[in-house]
Structures
1.
Amino acid sequence: MENTIKYILAILIITGYACNNNSKTGPQLADTSVSDTLITAKIDTIFVDTVAKTPEIKEETEISFADSIDFKKYEVGPQERIENAPIDWSSYPEARDFRTRITEAYKDSDVNFGGHYVISIFGCGASCIMGFMVDVRDGKIYDLPLGEENSCLFAEDRALGNATSRLFIAGVCKENLEAKQVYYKAYLWDEDKKEFEKIEAAAFLKKT
């Protein structure tokens, strides 16, 4: 009988110890679970705040000055496509200094100015561009009205032309950076004289 009582007491002691031990473990696991949830919530909150505070990026509207220019007024009409004649370097000996640029632009290129010409344009320093055009019919070279004389410090657009028009816009310029108005450095190709002549904006700007 005494042994039985000792056995029962032993079981009760072991059971009580186990319960106490489990009660300590339970809250620890629960705390870990809560802690993980809070971390996730904090990360989500930071992500949402970042997105909300990101400034909206607005696309800038580009102004196409070519749209206001009446190239068709000086149209030469469609021309029959012919094979480009060899470049006649003797027609403009000074152009040999830019032989590579002119040759690369001219080689197998389609006419891109005045019905018969392929133009080549390249930089010549700060706010400066220059170029030549080659007649596909005989390969003769002509100077474009560019360079320092026709450059502008505040250029909105430069070297505007058309494959079927004799009108060439060397520059669309402003007096200063804040100016709202623009002025044009424009020329008209005279096919008979084989030269460019200045033309005023009133003659080629479309009526609004």
2.
Amino acid sequence: MLPAHHSHRFSLADVLSSLFASVRHEDNALDLRPVDRAVVVVADGLGVAALRARSGHARSLMRMLLDDTAPTTIGSGFPTTTAAALATLTTGHNPGEHGIVGYTAFDAAHDRVVNQLTGWDDLMPPERWQLEQTLFERSVADGVPAFVVGAARYADSGFTRAVLRGAEFRASPSIEGRFEVARDILDANDRALVYLYVPELDQVSHRHGWESEQWIARLEELDSAVRMFSAGLREGEGALLTADHGVLDVPAGSHVHFDEIPGLLDGIRHVAGEPRCLQLHWDPDADEALRARTLAAWQASESARSWVVTREEAVAAGWFGPVVKPEVLPRIGDVLVAARDGIAYYDTRTATASARAMVGQHGSVSSAETEIPLLRMGDYAAS
């Protein structure tokens, strides 16, 4: 049986949309109290499993996680990768609607695979590729200023234009500094919707793994900043902390070199997705018999450790949400290979040394990847 799309009561699609409604003093999915100024903190890569395993280094976060007055965990959605997850958060729509379906995705109009974080160009304008209005655009149109607080290098990126458009960008190089900027925004505005991005945990986990001392140091830094920020929230202010996905460590010995397994690339023109969730696209010249043989080869080789499904099966199972727009459908792989064991797939002909050195991984549907925190502060803590 395929894993269900909705493994939790709430998902990232509910988070910023609920904050937006809260600032409008409207009912919302998360039952947040009405506030005038709201903040969502996104700790990239902070899964609940890793947080619990390092609970002694994050006492403030754990205190919130153990609060039994409201749900404190949600699902990240599919695939568990930053590009897709943040688009879901900031639009309130699933990948089948907003159109960012993986770390890399197939651009059918130009017969290429494009990195959805860094590969934007004139052939794929971010404002048109990401198909939904952002909640920041809606907020500003409604008269509520919207702000993004992040590292300066993201201010003018294509990905920012795709998923954060509508918000005013404010920069700070440090975790602590970003929380200080957010506090300044709240002080300067009667009403505000604020998104604060913390990429450091994810960056360190990719290089060293979440079980490393370096990851713990970043977790402690985040915990301290959250504690101080939360204590300073005032009446009419609420904040949530969540993540885009979780993480698990995959040693080099658990890499699967799929290009070295006979039959797996027959009739395949493009490989998109990420190491824990491949999205394979057929060569248009591959006939049905060849496609059937290649699919059978993948199932025979990998079904014991991964879900090997067709696009039609994934869409029917709701992996990309209950609705998949016609223009999004070609972006999804004809065949998807989603790891269920602690493995990662690499094509040794094309994978860079830096990619193969990555320790912390995500992209598939294990609980370590999908279960993320939803921690409440300020007026939201009493919701």
